[in-house]
Amino acid sequence: MDTSPDLSFFPGNHWLYFSVYLFTFLVGLPLNLVALVIFLGKLRRRPVAVDVLLLNLTISDLLLLLFLPFRMVEAASGMRWPLPFIFCPFSGFLFFTTIYLTSLFLAAVSVERFLSVAYPLWYKARPRPRQAGLVSGACWLVAGAHCSVVYITEFSRNSSYSHTNNDTCYLEFQENQLAILLPVRLEMAVVLFGVPLLITSYCYGHLVWVLSRGASHRRRRRVVGLVAATLLNFLVCFGPYNVSHVVGYIRGESPAWRSYVLLLSTLNSCVDPLVYYFSSSGFQADFHGLLRRLTGGWRPWREEGSLKLKEKNEEGGSHGSCRTGESGEVGACAEGK
User: Fold this and answer.
1) How far apart are CA 231 and CA 71, in angstroms?
2) What is the DSSP letter of 2?
3) Does residue 212 sit within a domain?
4) Is there a domain that residue 291 lies in?
């Protein structure tokens, strides 16, 4: 069975990959850096469980974004891997781990949001940052353990088929590699995507039902935004990619369109800031305050620069009138000074 992908699938299209990676990097990096600053400030003031979870999600997104240039280099090279081989499994491991960390952390956040509405007095009296830290550690461990299959797959090639004969990274697989990879992908689709999706759907379904009975319009609007951003992540960013795992397991090979839907998963780091924004009114207040400080620092500088330019123009105009006048007018200017 030919397990190699049709590489004619990539030529010309590799610039699509590069463009998506570049867009994700340019948009996601500043948004997640802002979120990192806000969550660190909130945790210093009053650590609560949901902020611990969202801080870990932000760190996960930043890891994805910081190593995304590896993928850009690969795409710019026509989907060939020009870097040292050691970076291939490492970048793949981080790439897939951070993707599945998002689904786990979104499920944990949905549980926290449901508890905050269903049991508000109990929730406010128990911030539980330590428990959230333990849950975050478990999420990192579970996602990392599953995605270590990248290392297992890359180093399980037959000795006669070394990396020097295969200059792609995690795109072409032998039959013995697929025998390991396809069942693990199926398990990941169930455990790291299906289960978190069910938990999130249940919690947010009950959350919307509880709020529909008497919450303020502002709070309902914020929850609707949170639910919409979360479902966008699950159904659009992660759904098609995990469907490719099921299809690949049934067919015994990776579907040709798998690499395209993987691009949607990359975009989750641009969608996650929407989850942060709608997660709490405190984050919104801190975000708007940070924007006011940034724009407030820019406006005085701009006004000062305009004032200096205006004064310079006026001074230049007065000098010009003295130079163009007759000798008597020059004397008048000198007297005026």
Assistant:
1) 26
2) -
3) yes
4) no
